[in-house]
Amino acid sequence: GLSQYSSDPRTEWDLNAYSTRDQVLEAMKNMRYKGGNTFTGLALTHVLEQNLKPDAGARLEAEKFVILLTDGKSQDDANLAAQTLKNLGIEIFAIGVKNADEAELKQVASEPLDLTVYNVLDFPLLSSLVSKLTRVLCTRIKEKSNKENTEIPVNMGPQLSPTDLKISAVTSKSMHLTWSPPPNPPKKYRIVYYPSKGGTPKEVVLDGAVSSLQLSNLTSHTEYLVSVFPIYDTAVGDGLRGVTSTLPLSSPRSLRVSELSHNSMRLSWKAAQGATQYLVLCSAAPDGGED
Q: 16, 222, 224, 228: least buried by Cβ within 10 Å?
């Protein structure tokens, strides 16, 4: 699977989209470059929420690997998002090109760093990494697959996922989330939320016995994406997703003008709830003469 990112991540193809090498190479040739910013944290969250889920071809029993390719320093908190993936057993390889921040690459990548962090001076030099990276990836997959584990069977997927996400009591700064727990109760829930037009993802981790959350300190008049992930000892269930907008801040009403003179006027209005100050702007109407 492959996703490309700048301010907002974009899935190019899912894990189950192609089944041959030639199909992948053809898709790569047809891919359009996405210019813009470098929100790596948002991109890693996108991978977890969109690309590593059963609907996109991820199998619960399969080992999970993410290869991050970047040529710049992240403009949001990449370390927090990366740590979330690593806590779920997802291994991250970080490849930097040109102006990539090597310290950040080492923070994001999984241990051991001598196998998971790479840096080259320019894009053509990426070809020099292919054979080594291929060997390392294949070896890591075999090592992890050979370990004795108690992985939850893939056919239990529906048993691992919560349902019926409801968003209520929405205000300009808060909203309330509730959901129905899965038949197989999780150890914890991870709730991720962020503005749909780009921004730093925030997350809350709850005990698996809890199935509601109040989100506070939100930005007014903003659309938020919300995801609820159930976390088990050896797997993560499919996430619940929702979208809603916070309310705009209340406005002053009933503007009145009185006590007019040749160089003054009095304004009055009904107060806006919660306002601590007002900004009053005054300018001459078009063709109204001198200010």
A: 16
